[in-house]
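Hi R.,

Here's the input for the guanosine-5'-diphosphate-rhamnose complex you asked about:
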Amino acid sequence: MKTAVIFGVTGQDGSYLSELLLSKGYKVVGVNRRTSSENTSRITYSLDHSNFELVQGDVTDPFSIHRILADYTPNEVYNLAAQSHVGVSFKQASLTWSITAVGCMNILEAIRSMASPPRFYQASSSEMFGDQFSVAKSSSLNSLQPVPEPYQNEDTPFSPQSPYAIAKCAAHHAVRLYRKSYNLYACGGILFNHESERRGLEFVTRKISNYVAGLDWATRMGRSIPKLHLGNLLAKRDWGHAEDYVEAMWMMLQQDGPDDYVIATGNSHSVEDYAKEAFKCINIEEYLYFIEVDKTLARPSEVPYLRGCSKKAFRKMGWKPRTNFKSLVKRMVDHDIQSRFQYEKSEAEISQS
Ligand code: NDP
Ligand code: GDR
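And here is the predicted structure with guanosine-5'-diphosphate-rhamnose in place:
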C-alpha cells in the first residue's frame, strides 16, 4: 500500500485530494496545524476512513516535518499548505512568506536528507504570472483568423503582483533547483483558480454564491438583506472545479519523470460574469442592483487577466477538466441554497424539541 503525506489537508484541495487518494487505496497521513477551534469540517469523510490518519505538524516548524516524514516514510508528499489569500498577503506579508515560501523549503530540505526521498508535489499558482501573458506568434495567424486570446503557459514569464505570489515564485524556483541539484522527483503544479462547494467564504466565488443563497432565503421570507460588497469586478480568472484539479496533482506524481504543468480550463471570465451567472441561478437578471463596489476591497496591486493553456498536461498526462464555468457556478449556488435549507430545518427542529 502506498503512503502519502498531505500538508494542508484541512483546506479545500487537501480534503478532495485526501478522498481521491483513499479511493485509490493509499494510506493517507494528513498534517494539521494546531488551532484553538475545530477546523476539520471539510475532512469528515477522511477522518472516518480506516486508512486515514491525522497528525499534528506545521510547515514553519522543520522539526515537525522531519518527524512526520521519518515516522511514515511516505512514497508521495503533497505540499498544499499556504496562507493562500492574496488580499490577506498584503496585510500579513511576513507570515505569508514564512508559510508559503519557507514552508516549502523546509519540506524540500527534509525530503532530500531521506535515504529514499518521496515524490513531491508543490502547489504553485497562476498568481505567479501576475500581469504577464503570452500571445500566439503572428506567423500562425492569417487575415481570416480572429486575433487569438492571450494565455499563460509553462513558458510565460513570472511577474508576481502580491507578497503571496512572490512567496509562490520562491517556492516554485526552490522546487526546480532541488529537482536539478539533488535529482528529486519534485513537481510544481501551476494551478489556475479552482473553486468548489468547499471553497473558503473569503474567496470571491464562494462569497458570491453564499450571498445569492442568502438572498434567495430572504426573498422567500419576505425580508431584505444588505448589498453584496465586492472589490474589482473587472478582474478575469480561469475558474475550474477543485475535484478535477486534485486529480492533476496525483497524475503529476505518476509520470516517468518530474516536471511542471499548467492546469486550467482555458476559459476566462470576469468577477462580474461570475456574479451575473450566480444571480441567474435564482432567476435574477438585475444583479447589479444587489452589488456595491467597495474600494476598500480592491488590492494595492491586481492581477487583471488569467487564462491558462494546459495543453502540456493533456499531451503528457491526458489531463483535462470536466466541469465548465456554468456548471461550476450552479453547483456552488445550489450547494449554498441546500445548506441554508438544512440549517433552517435543524433550527426549526431544535425550537420544537
Ligand atoms: P486553503 O486556504 O483552503 O488551504 C490551505 C491549507 O494550508 C489549510 O489546510 C491550512 O490549514 C494549511 N496551512 C496554513 N498554514 C499552515 C502551516 N503553517 N502549517 C501547515 N498547514 C498550514 O487553500 P486551497 O486548498 O484552496 O489551496 C491549496 C494550495 O494550493 C495552497 O497552497 C494554495 O496557495 C494553492 N493554490 C490554490 C489555488 C486555488 O484556486 N484554490 C490555485 C493555485 C494554487 P488551516 O485549515 O489550519 O488554515
Ligand atoms: P485569487 O482569488 O486572488 O485569484 O486567488 P480571489 O477569489 O480572492 O479573487 C479573485 C478576484 O476577485 C477579485 N475580487 C474579490 N476577491 C475577494 N476575495 N473578495 C472580494 O470581495 C472581491 N471582489 C473582487 C479579486 O481582486 C481578484 O481579482 C486564488 C487563491 O486561491 C490563491 O491561493 C490561488 O493561488 C489563486 O486563486 C490562483
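One thing worth noting: The chain has a mean pLDDT of 95.

Cheers,
M.
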